[in-house]
Amino acid sequence: KEKVRSYIGPLKTEEESLTADPQLKVDLLQDQYVKVFSDPSDINVDEAAEGIEERLEEQTDIDFSPTYIEGALGELHPYSSAPDEDIPAKLLREYKERLSYSLWKLWDQSMKTSFIPKRLKKEQIAPNQNKATRVFQRTHEK
User: Fold this and answer.
1) pTM exceeding 0.70
2) Which of 5, 25, 26, 9 is nearest to 129 (CA)?
3) CA angle, 90 then 94 then 99, to 5°
4) How far, in Å, are 25, 51, 52, 61, 73 from residue 58 at the CA level?
């Protein structure tokens, strides 16, 4: 195994002391991640759906135009990275005026029909091991 140098500086533990121990830093960062992101299986659907009818009624008239898309594309950093099959941010930013109407039309049609093409629902998710998986791996690697 090659050793990789960590560019993450010392972190504060729960006892307010600094640690540079790589394993402790990993545990601290994982604990912080777990606090921020929830487990989808723990979601109470009934609780999440409370008041949805009122919220849906409020969201029927969304003021959105090609100008908003131009603004959003203009805020892209020109050298933001994009996967191979996606359009580079530099091109999106450079051709924002030409693209904004087409993108708005696609969005508008999706809103009117409540249909989003399957290829536009694609997400890129990097798997992240949870703490239980790490503990299992540590105890079974030996």
Assistant:
1) no
2) 26
3) 110
4) 45, 11, 10, 7, 27
